[in-house]
Known about the structure:
By secondary structure, this protein is mostly beta strands. About 0% of the residues lie in helices and about 50% in strands. The strands form two sheets. Strands 2, 4, 5, 6, 9, 10 and 11 form a seven-stranded mixed β-sheet that branches.
Amino acid sequence: DVQLVESGGGSVQAGGSLRLSCALSGYTYSRNCLGWFRQAPGKEREGVAAIGGDGSTNYADSVQGRSTISQDKAKNTLFLQMNSLKPEDTAMYYCAAHFVCFRPPPLHPSHYNVWGQGTQVTVS
């Protein structure tokens, strides 16, 4: 079975940085879409950043310029580097995957069919 396990969340002051990681197991397909999503209490889940198997990326306007998505295919790990964090970035962050991708990789959660359990990010 494909499994995604997030880590790296935590509490940080506004202006700080965090690097989220997502370990992929049972998953070696090279043309996948991988993405980061977040959900704050009382809000819908939203796309943050996505990366395709060809390295193309897509970012939500709210994090553009402050975040970088990357992938280490050799280690089957997805990353999200977040800088200049704001209180409105507070949410549960999830990584997700799908075997089919487009260009640019989609940010809508409905495209993705494999999800991790999430890691909490709190910015104060």
